[in-house]
Each structure stands twice: as C-alpha cells, then as structure tokens.
Amino acid sequence: MPGRGSCPDCGSAELVEDSHYSQNQLVCSDCGCVVTEGVLTTTFSDEGNLREVTYSRSTGENEQVSRSEQRGLRRVRDLCRVLQLPPTFEDTAIAYYQQAYQHAGIRTARLQKKEVLVGCCVLITCRQRNWPLTMGTICTLLYADLDVFSGTYMQIVKLLGLDVPSLCLVDLVKTYCSSFKLFEASPSVPAKYVEDKEKMLSRTLQLVELADETWLVTGRHPLPVITAATFLAWQSLRPSDRLTCSLARFCKLANVDLPYPASSRLQELLAVLLRMAEQLAWLQVLKLDKRSVVKHIGDLLQHRHMLVRKAFRDGTAEMDPGEELQGQGQGPEEEDVGSSSLELPAVKRPASPALLLPPCMLKPPKRVCSTPPVSTVTGDEDISDSEIEQYLRTPQEVRDFQKAQAARQAAQSVPNPP
Q1: What would you report as the CA-atom Rg of the chain, rounded to the nearest whole angstrom?
Q2: Which of 204, 262, 214 lies closest to 235 in space, CA to CA?
Q3: Residue-wise over 114-139: b if at least 16 C-beta within 10 A, else e?
Q4: Are 203 and 253 in contact (CB under 8 A)?
Q5: I want to staple 29 with a disulfide (CB 3.0 to 4.6 A). Which of 14, 36, 301, 345 is the partner?
Q6: pTM score, two decimals?
Q7: What are the pLDDT digits (tens) for 284-310?
Q8: Count of beta carbons in the 10 Å neighbourhood of residue 342
Q9: At residue 35, does pLDDT exceed 80?
Q10: Residue 366: which residues within 8 A CB-CB, separation 6 or more?
C-alpha cells in the first residue's frame, strides 16, 4: 500500500495488512517479512497493569538469527545436497553449526573460518555415521585451505566435546573405486582395459591393507595410496595388456584426477612388493624389477602375512664363532688349549629384526642447519664513558673512576715539550 514505506529486507513497497492472533500486522507481500507487528498481552499481571507486550517478546523470541549465521546454515544445506546426504545428516550438521556459532570465538572469527566451519560440521556428521568422506573432498568443494580446515576441525571437535571416529579405510576404498569408469566398455575405454568390478575391488583392498601394514598410509592422505593400489590391482589382473599403461593414462581412462603424491606412493608399494618377492624361492631366480613384479602380485598377496613378517623381521647374518660361544655361556678363553688352533666355520644366526619404519623415518627430510653468527667480541674493546657507569656498583668504584677520569684529562691538557 502506498504511503507505508518499503520493506527493509527486499525494498518492495507492496506492504499489506494481515491479521494474526486478532492483531493487525504490516507484512511485505513479496518476501513475507513482518514490517510492523501488533501487540499482545501474555500474562494476567500484564493485562491488569495494562502493559502491552510485542508478539516477539510474548513468544520468547528475543534474539534473531544474524545474517552471517543464516548464510552459513544455507551453505550447510547446500553442501549436504551436493553430497547427496540423507536428511538426518543435514539436520545433525545444522545442529552442530548452530552450537558452534553460539561460541564467541566462532561468531567473531574471520569469514574464511566461518566458511570452513560449514565443511567441518558436515565432515563430523559423516564421520560419526561411517559415511566415507575425506577432508580433501570437502576442501575441494569449498575451495578451502587444508591447513585452515584441519585446524578449525580440531577446534570444533574439542569445543563441542564430540566423539568422532577415524575414517574407515575399507568403506573409502569401495566408494572411491566405484567412481572409476573402467567397469563398462565405452568409446574412451578399450575392451582390454575393462575389468570386473568385484575382482578389482578385492585386490585393491588387499593392496591397501598391505600398505597399511607397512606404514605407507599412516599420517598421509589416503586417496593417493588408494589410487596407486587400484592401478597396481588393475595392472596385475591382465599384465600382458596393461603393463605399458602409465599411471597418468590410467587415471585419464578412469576419469579421475591424479593426486600429486600418487606416483611416490606407487614407487613405495613396488619397493615393498620387491622386498616380499625376495622371500619366495620360485621368484628369487627371476631377478624381478619394479615392472615385472606386477605379474606376481597375486602370489605375493596370497602369502602376504608370512612374507611381510619374513621380509622385515627374519634376516640372517654371519657371526664370529667366538661370539656364538659367548652367547652359549662359554667364551673362547674357556676352551682347551689344543682346540685353540682349530678354525671353526662361521655360524649363522638370526640377526636383529630389520626395521619396519614409516618412510618419513627411513628417509627424513633434509633440514637446513643455519650456522650461528660468528661473534667478533674479544673482551679487549674500549668501554665508553656512558656505558661504564652501568658497571659501577659501589661508591668506592665511583670515586676511583672519577679520579682516573680527572687524571686522564689533566694529562691531555699538558702541552708536549718542543
């Protein structure tokens, strides 16, 4: 209606009167915003004293949701719909966002942190319900920095006191491998590259479990490891046709992105497989390399537990016979004199277990050692008059210093003889 102003939200001038609980209210017909509201009395004391109470106060709605929080709640809903999460997931993520937003540290945080908070609430909800979702996927969707996201994630978990289980690697492998476009023939995928989904998934799971047992997964992003394991599983099922295919071409055929560290994870997995192949008698004579060992991945995985234990723990080493006798409680000095001239053969014994350590400990990053600056102070430098006063402690020292200073000035004032 003209003459009543405009809507503060949308700016429309189409304002109409609406009756709500027998009270006239001015409402925007375009967006539904209540511009002015009627008054109500809620309690008998209010009615007796003829005190009018607005509708918002009568319902206890004293605080309104800020625009920043409204925008965050909309982004939580949008992210859940993009990920096609069930409605219960969306409700839980919204509840976590509202709880976190009540804290002053979150309300006053920068916009970047509030944007990341949306993904943190969704990720926590998925982790609690064993839904396979990685932190990297959320960061990609939100264009967020991984360091900022991980820091905010840990802060929210601690702030809300939540119990968040770790990511189930098996579920992640199944979900990630299902996205590969290698299970049906298509114009972009030749027939020799098409593979059965169940066979490929089973072998990929075995390779990922092997990587987990040999410290290749701990403390790392799982997707590069899974990508490398899937590539090896795919190659090993038909090695004659697929050994010439590179990892980059494999990812292009599967229509997935190639994670940057996947090539390094591939080389680490091949090194572990070569170490295991050295323990099988029928493979020792073949002199395998990182390319030919792919043909025997099926045999290596069949005896995986025994080969890993033998490759990393059961080495043998030669030892001096005297050391062997000492180990049995009898040293060489306790032998008969006549036997001291005998040459005993070298005795083999189990050596200390080979170290099975994470790659970051086997190949630690090089640290740049900054040399401390060389001090040029020798202790024979002259001390200025203004500085020497800081070292004077007793009145006697002050008097001695004044006498010495006066004597020096007197000596400087005496003219030199011609």
Answers
A1: 39
A2: 204
A3: bbbbbbbbbbbbbbeeebbbbbebbb
A4: no
A5: 14
A6: 0.55
A7: 888 899 999 999 999 999 988 888 888
A8: 9
A9: no
A10: none
Return the percentage of the chain with pLDDT > 70, whole number. Answer: 70
Q: Which helix (H) or strand (E) holds 17?
A: strand 15-20
- How many Cβ atoms are within 10 Å of 312's Cβ, its own excluded? 19
Handedness of CA 29, 35, 38, 40 (dihedral sign): positive
Supply 359's token pair. Answer: 């790659």
**What are the start-end ranges of the H helices in 83-180?**
87-101, 104-107, 111-128, 135-142, 146-160, 169-178
pLDDT score recorded for residue 351: 41
Both structure tokens of 368: 């740049």
**pLDDT of res. 393:** 63
- Burial (CB count <10 Å: 0-12, 13-18, 19+), residue 307: buried
For residue 28, the one-letter residue type is C
In the predicted model, is pLDDT for residue 86 greater than 70? Answer: yes
Q: CA–CA separation, 233 vs 196, rounded Å?
A: 11
Give the pLDDT score at 346: 45
Report pLDDT digits (tens) over 103-149.
888 888 888 888 999 999 999 999 898 888 888 788 888 988 888 99
